[in-house]
């Protein structure tokens, strides 16, 4: 799937850069263009692999918004025309989707990403998705409250919001900050493989995934979740039936970006590996298992031919907001908001539709 990536804020920029680099190193060419936007100049200067744009210089002079996500939303609103013109040529007609990437706990990404998605939806015909990073449990009340407000608005504005829980992909005992490198690397690999899986590969069979299957899986909107697991494969495909089941189970049950999210409106199972090692029978069995497990009748499946000694399973869930983990997060965000005595409406809500209209 050809995508354009726009990172907002520090986490957004770092993850966008990682993803772009992974895609280039692997030679996938799924990432068609990438731009990192921030109100903090030093954060942009540390990026080497993507184009950058500073916003809000008149308000915060390149120093960031210090966790104030209302200010983050406001400066995005003020500078959105410049952002949109900067995207000209970066989002080409080849792009099949746009992903806006942001950490939802801070200020610039948390407030800026929903506002930007809102505007992109008016300008572009392709789906505009968000890739949102939720703060880990121990990340402090401001982050939780910010992320809760940002997420509510993103769910309304984006065609689907792919969530990554910062607690999902790091070792126990390791601090979240210490684990950023690992987490970002895992996001880049998994999401990068998903994009690449949707690329049409010439000369291979009809069981190969294409981008419409990703888009259809995400069609119901709401929250989406991505899981991955891999194992060494045997040379003979018939010996890999159990391996396919194992990696599919691990991808969903222990490898997802939002642990415990299993119920979904739709799902996509992608099996990656050398085509001659992928057992059709195993893939079919794993797909049926996924149907039961997600309680969804819409489970798509396909292969992703990849030169590797391993077999990998990618599981994408669409419409997965009914999970306990997301409910627990929203509860945490509500409590944090209450503890701060906040009664303010959600980030973009308070920038009334009139003001949004006036920008166009
Ligand atoms: N996974 C991951 N999360 C990050 C990273 N950097 C920051 N975060 C998370 O993102 C949230 C903070 O957002 P940032 O992106 O740092 O903040 P910002 O959007 O730049 O906003 P301001 O700094 O307030 O202007 C917190 O939940 C952090 O844990 C990173 O490199 N990887």
TrEMBL record:
Name of the protein in question: Tubulin-like protein CetZ
Amino acids binding GTP: 10-14, 107-109, 139, 166, 184
Keywords: Cell cycle, Cell division, Cell shape, Cytoplasm, GTP-binding, Nucleotide-binding
Compartments (UniProt record): Cytoplasm
Family assignment from sequence similarity: Belongs to the CetZ family.
GO BP of this protein: cell division; microtubule-based process; regulation of cell shape
RNA-binding listed as a keyword: no
């Amino acid at each position: 799937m050809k995508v354009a990536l726009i990172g907002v804020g520090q986490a957004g920029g770092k993850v966008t850069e990682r993803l772009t680099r992974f895609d280039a190193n692997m030679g996938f060419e799924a990432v068609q263009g990438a731009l990192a936007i921030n109100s903090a100049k030093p954060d942009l200067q540390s990026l080497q692999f993507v184009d950058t744009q500073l916003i809000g210089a008149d308000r915060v002079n390149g120093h960031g918004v210090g966790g104030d996500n209302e200010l983050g939303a406001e400066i995005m609103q003020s500078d959105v025309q410049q952002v949109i013109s900067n995207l000209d040529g970066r989002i080409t007609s080849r792009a099949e989707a746009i992903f806006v990437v942001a950490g939802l706990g801070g200020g610039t990404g948390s407030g800026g990403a929903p506002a930007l998605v809102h505007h992109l939806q008016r300008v572009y015909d392709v789906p505009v998705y968000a890739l949102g990073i939720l703060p880990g449990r121990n990340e402090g009340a401001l982050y939780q409250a910010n992320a809760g407000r940002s997420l509510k608005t993103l769910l309304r504005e984006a065609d689907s919001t792919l969530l990554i829980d910062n607690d999902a992909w790091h070792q126990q005992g390791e601090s979240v900050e210490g684990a950023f490198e690992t987490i970002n690397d895992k996001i880049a690999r998994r999401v990068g493989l998903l994009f690449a899986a949707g690329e049409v590969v010439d000369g291979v069979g009809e069981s190969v995934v294409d981008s419409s299957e990703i888009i259809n899986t995400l069609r119901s909107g709401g929250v989406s979740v991505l899981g991955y697991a891999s194992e060494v494969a045997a040379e003979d495909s018939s010996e890999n039936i159990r391996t396919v089941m194992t990696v599919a189970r691990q991808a969903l049950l222990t490898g997802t970006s939002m642990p415990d999210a299993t119920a979904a409106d739709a799902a996509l199972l992608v099996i990656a590996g050398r085509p001659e090692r992928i057992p059709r029978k195993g893939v079919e069995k794993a797909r049926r298992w996924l149907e039961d497990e997600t309680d969804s009748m819409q489970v798509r499946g396909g292969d992703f031919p990849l030169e590797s000694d391993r077999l990998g399973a990618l599981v994408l869930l669409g419409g997965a907001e009914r999970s306990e983990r997301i409910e627990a997060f929203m509860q945490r965000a509500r409590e944090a908001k209450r503890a701060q005595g906040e009664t303010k409406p959600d980030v973009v809500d308070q920038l009334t539709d009139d003001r949004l209209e006036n920008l166009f």
